[in-house]
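Deliverable D4.2, example record:
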Amino acid sequence: MSHNTPRRVACMTDEPQEIRIRHFSLADLPRVLEIEPASFRVVDAWSRPIFRKWYRQCPDLFIVAEISGTIEGYMCTSMEQKTGEIESIAVDRAFRRQGVASALMDYTLREMQASGITTMGLQVRTTNTGGIRFWQNAGFVPSGILPNFYDDGAEALQMKKSLT
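Output generated by the structure prediction step:
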């Protein structure tokens, strides 16, 4: 399914391992549900029904990253007309800062451009400095603050990236 060159990451053994990007299937849900609560606050983590909803609505835009046959990250994106929206991305703690999120994002951005999407957007907690830095390094720029965006009343930083 992936038409990108698989990336290699050095993990625990320091031997390069390949990151393979493929479409999510419902059989992947148990592993994704293991990654989710370790990646987000309880109020932000998606539940099984939410993942199923996004899979039904955007099956071609829900991808996973595998290393040695195990899912170590996922990304869910939606699109409407010429705009894409990154709905969620998470990587297993043991594989963070090793290129997994970048591989998911690069694949998604290529797919969005090929589909004629001209702008990508996302929201990130204003307190998530690591996430904001990741998105800025990927070329996203702040475009506004969304007050009371999260269920606990926290603000979100809205970010955008032009794909043209």
